[in-house]
Design a protein that fits this description.
This protein is mainly alpha-helical. It is built from 6 helices and 2 strands; from the N terminus they run H-H-H-H-H-H-E-E.
């Protein structure tokens, strides 16, 4: 019979204690404001999918004006300006959509399914329809949804921290 010896290592317990102490120094997150930020980001995603930059059309009527030559002989028409603006808007829109898609794809299967069915699909669907369709209890559904929002907030850097000193709120992107 082989005996296993347990050796007490003070360094191991010190290291574990330090990790616990570090966790207590993390700032507290304001869950309501963080949830609102994530919901706003998902709503903006829906709008970006529907957005078509047709409101930035060039002028059709001709306008004549004297354009003095510049040292570089550059000339910009309104059509060129609108085309450049449309490219910038389309690029920003495409980047935002890809950012949200990548963030949602990083979630586990259940979280991702809830977010996609509730917020990303075109159908206007309610929470109770999603959890009935998935076969979850109401409590389990909201627990998974809250965890998904929490993860999305960190992935997208939308979390809001509570500041205990001044009772002010700090976002992830701002410095307090």
């Amino acid at each position: 019979m082989t005996a296993i010896a347990v050796v007490w290592c003070p360094f191991y317990f010190f290291k574990e204690r330090m990790m616990i102490m570090q966790l207590t120094f993390l700032p507290e997150i304001d869950r309501d404001k963080t949830k609102k930020n994530v919901e706003a980001a998902l709503e903006k995603y829906q709008i970006m999918l529907l957005m078509d930059p047709e409101e930035c059309e060039p002028k059709i009527t001709a306008s004549f004006r004297l354009a003095p030559s510049s040292p570089t002989n550059e000339f910009h028409s309104t059509t060129e300006d609108v085309a450049l603006e449309r490219i910038e808007i389309t690029e920003k829109r495409r980047n935002y959509i890809n950012r949200i898609r990548k963030a949602v794809n990083r979630l586990n299967y259940q979280e991702r399914t809830i977010i996609i069915k509730r917020y990303i699909n075109d159908d206007d669907i309610y929470d109770y329809e999603v959890y009935n369709e998935m076969g979850f209890s109401e409590r389990k559904y909201y627990r998974i949804k809250a965890r998904a929002f929490y993860k999305l907030a960190f992935i997208l850097r939308l979390e809001v921290y509570k500041e205990e000193k001044n009772n002010e709120l700090c976002t992830a992107n701002s410095r307090c």
